[in-house]
Design goal:
about 290 residues, SH3 type barrels, about 25% helix, rod-shaped
């Protein structure tokens, strides 16, 4: 066989016809021609029996053929290094798929936990906002000696049903008449109970100015109003406001609106009108 022809068949599936010296019949070997060694006079063939050598001087003919079929499908022979490369590639793809799935699962779990925490927080704040708040039970006025002007106003308040702890330090009172006034809580104007002289003589009126209001506890079993400045369910108190210092008092037939606004929850509003005639110094404001 010519060298230039043999080289062109290396790597191809071939049908090789050989005849040993002294034999009458030729034999056929099929397989992939792996290599040609002209120096030693052999060719390397990868057949079904495995890897083997044939002497070049015994070869009568070499014919490229079709790949073998097993169950109707072509069978491809792979070298050991090729099989290893395929296995490593498959392993890399599998590991990548596992890593991607793990990262995606981690992101989904973290997102669901974050959404759950936010939903719980929003739900809790919404419940507190709706259920908590101040209820206005009564509005009472106190006139001057001549009974011509309402000088002080007492607002009887209590927590709404189901309300949580109400912090009086962060609660404020608004009054709207000829102007809009906001009154803040003064810790120095807190009384644990009503004095014998009455509601409007319990607190020091000189400290009750146009910017603050005072608190008188009516029902406070745990002394939370006078000690921690807070109201619990079941407590009730009176907010005392100096109308003379705030809006120059309320004349007969005049109206005043305002609100008592806690830090959290529903506010209590009032819309009162002074009577036509002040028969007594203590009057109801409706």
């Amino acid at each position: 066989m010519e060298k230039r022809y043999m080289e062109r068949l290396v790597g191809k599936y071939c049908k090789i016809v050989t005849k040993e010296p002294g034999e009458d019949r030729a034999s056929v070997v099929t397989g992939i021609l792996e290599d040609v060694d002209y120096e030693d006079g052999f060719i390397l063939v990868n057949s079904e029996q495995g890897l083997g050598c044939l002497r070049i001087n015994t070869i009568i003919a070499i014919k490229p053929g079709h790949k073998r079929k097993i169950n109707g499908e072509h069978k491809k022979s792979l070298k050991d290094d090729e099989k290893g490369m395929v296995g490593i590639g498959t392993l890399i793809v599998f590991i990548a798929m596992v890593l991607v799935a793990a990262v995606a699962a981690s992101v989904l779990i973290q997102t669901s936990q974050t959404l759950q925490q936010r939903a719980y927080k929003v739900g809790s704040e919404t419940i507190s906002e709706v259920s908590s708040g101040i209820r206005l039970d009564d509005t009472i006025g106190y006139t001057n000696e001549n009974r011509t002007l309402v000088e002080y106003m007492a607002l009887v308040i209590s927590p709404r049903a189901g309300s949580g702890y109400i912090d009086l330090e962060n609660m404020f009172v608004t009054i709207q008449h000829d102007n809009f006034t906001v009154l803040e809580f003064n810790k120095n104007l807190v009384a644990a109970k009503v004095s014998a002289d009455g509601v409007f003589h319990t607190l020091n009126s000189s400290k009750l100015n146009s910017s603050v209001y005072g608190i008188i506890a009516i029902h406070d079993s745990d002394n939370s109003i006078s000690t921690t400045y807070g109201m619990n369910v079941g407590d009730s108190a009176i907010i005392l406001v100096n109308l003379s210092a705030t809006i120059n008092g309320i004349a007969p037939r005049n109206s005043v609106i305002g609100s008592v606004m806690p830090e959290l929850g529903v506010e209590a509003t009032y819309d009162i009108t002074a009577p036509v005639v002040f028969l007594n110094r203590i009057i109801d404001l409706y």
